[in-house]
Amino acid sequence: ADLRAFSDWLSPLTFEATQRGFFLKSTVGTGDWFLKDAEFQRWTAGHTKFLWCPGNPGVGKTMLASIVVEELRKHYLQPGVGVACIFCDYNKGGAQTITALIGSLLRQLMTSGSAVPDSLSSLYNCFKSRLSHADLSDLTSALRSQLQLYSRVYLVIDALDECSDSTRDQFVSTIHALAESDCLHVLITSRDISSVVQEFINDSTPRIDIRANEEDIHTYIKHRLRSERKLTRLVESNEALQNDIVARVTEKASGMFLLARLHIDSLASKLSLLALRKALDTLPKEIHASYNETMVRIRAQGEEECKLAHQVFMWLTYARRQLSVAEVQHALALLPDMAEIDPEAIVDVEILTSVCAGLVVVVEHDYHWRKFIRFVHYTAQEYFKGEGSILFPDARASIATTCIKYLSFDNFWLPRDRHVDDDDSSDKSMEKPLLKYVAGYWGHHVRDSEASLCASTKELLMSFLHNPVKVTRVMKLYRRLNFLSRLQVYPIHIVAMFGLYETMTLLLNTGTSPDSCDSKGATPLIHAAENGHSKSEGGRTPLSYAAGLGRKEVVQLLLQRQDVDADSRDKAGRTPLSRAAANGHVDVIIQLLQPDLVD
Predict the structure, then answer these.
(1) So what's the pLDDT on residue 255?
(2) ANK repeats located where (predicted)?
């Protein structure tokens, strides 16, 4: 148990479920062309340190990466040889930090046994001391020591381009430094984009361009023709039609596995040979058009199914992080005038995915084995972000309203543990699985839609803010989720923290003091400044307010930030200096007249 806890402390990421999930979805026989490539053979033989494998969106890079990992484990794993993998994911940027990624490599390469290896004793002592997390330098040093226990380590990094820019910069430089060890051999897949190439690749780096091999696409289509029940019944006795489907889907897929999948999904929905042939004649040849065609099929399902699909797409498009299946189910089950979630309003996950016509998938998370729901591909997310204002114009207000209603429930669950984890095994957590998301992000969603919230929703928000029990519980959970220290705050500090200008006005109109201090003496203005909320509707910045009020400590805090313009003008044309001068705040005037601060 201690070893498992130590592993979880190193990193919550193992990528085992991700690897298994992708490999099980791959079609037997696909990817053989890559495994037989001379450059891949040279890399596995240890003759090259890095293997660069770029490819366009949708060609099957991640599936191929999972096939490579399985091949390495099956044919190369032996005493003294290690295999590790990283699957970068645009949806998990918040969780896939540099320390989590390096920590994951470390836990994957920990030698089997029931005790912590000697090479990790210093890190283990940090863990026993109950430090919140390990330092990057300590993790890197420990990983370097761990690599010395192996004669060869294969590392497969998939979708490097999906890392956030800052994480990718650190990750690449760390891997480069670790690769000075003779044993480490790294294979990387990514889109062939300059930001990745410039950081990592030079002219001498061995390269295999990933493409959707025509033979692989044929194999995939034939597999789907055998496994899709309705499609099989339509074509099983017509070999010529089967061959026609294989040829035309391959042609229209234009080297993209994703397009081939969407095309077969479309054909599999047809109920007659005539409908099938018509669909085959009109298959789109590019991904955006294919998504449009899928949306036409979704609208044709019926009003209830179409509405449900749109709600799923809306939440996945505008959510601030990846959502679990249970979170989406509860978000959609919150009906108007509902005081609590009715279990009978929960929609089964198979129905949720089926109405979305293949555009969303359920995946297993590597940590605690929770199931998450996500778009089938990042291009689908981009499609809905681009079309969002048309498909769901009220999305931001709708999500904010759901969050506020959830906050207003009377029977709140709050974890009593020493720390908050993501384990949904607790009965209480299952009762309100959306609570952690709402506690962490309600303020962001309200800020995105504050002006468009209806009067009843604003009243509900004010009712929540004036309920000290609910506010205390939600903020306690918020602090735990964001690793913040204990702090007693009041509604006005919370509103300032999230930059809710309209709500701030409502609070001030009820007599709340703008100078209220939290338990550490910070005012709402400081909370707004620390969280980067730069301007009010009148164009006034926190610096403008602080200067006008003569708050020299706040002014000093703000002037230390690189993103603060000391000479900014509000809509009335006033600068912070003019505000300070008008009110006779000499100390603040001196602060603002420092060289290079104002023109």
Answers:
(1) 83
(2) 538-561, 572-599
